[in-house]
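Team,

Forwarding the record for the chain on the shared tracking sheet. I've put the sequence and predicted structure together so nobody has to dig through attachments.
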Amino acid sequence: MRPNTIPRLALLATACIACTAALADPPKTDGLWRGDAGAAFSAQSGNTTSDALLVHGDVAALTTIDKISLGGNYNYGHSKLNGVSTTTSDKWNGYGEYDYNLSPDLFTFGKVGFEGDKIAHLSLRSSLGAGLGYKVINTKDTQFNLYGGVGYSTDKYSQLQTVGSRTSETFSRASVFLAEESAHVLSSSTTFKQRLELTPGVSGDKAMLTKFTASLAVAMSSTLSLNVGVVDTNNSKPPAGLKSNDLGIFTGINVKLGAN
């Protein structure tokens, strides 16, 4: 499967779902924090011993004026074969976003993000973004937003890397920021949410950074749910010797956070 296939299919599916959404009351705007956190773990023993862990969390507080969103995740993987231990994954990311409503449908946003990947020798990628957003659909059962603006990101590596003809430990770029996100209540026990971010660089190394996340949750109780998700990231100009695409698929248990 080509690296961009999943985001394209997800965007098409989301648009179809959003266009058929029924009118309903908008999400609660009482300023209380709501969200979820979860963990996924797998282990194998025998000729090869391996284990993998993913922990994640997202929370948001909405009012009639603004919205604050916070979240992040950590993914670690380890394997041992013939007495040789290898770390197969050690990456993390976190973000914060502030939206301010200019009208019932139009809003401004500012966001900051941080991430690291030990396997790729990425010590820290810091990013900033700002612009305008539009609430295409904003009901209790379906939210669908579009974003457009500008961004800037810097990659700091723990050792010298080569991108194109340049060798350095630091690469920066100004970029255009484009995104879409949606959340859907599919039934009384099933929810789906996804987000796609595109940041084509216009300066520096002019790398195109893409990030797609999606998750499907099925409730097991009023607070616990089974969660299946995907995280797909792509760097069009990775350092020499590294792959451009990084895909992770996980399943685990989620717990609701905050107010009902």
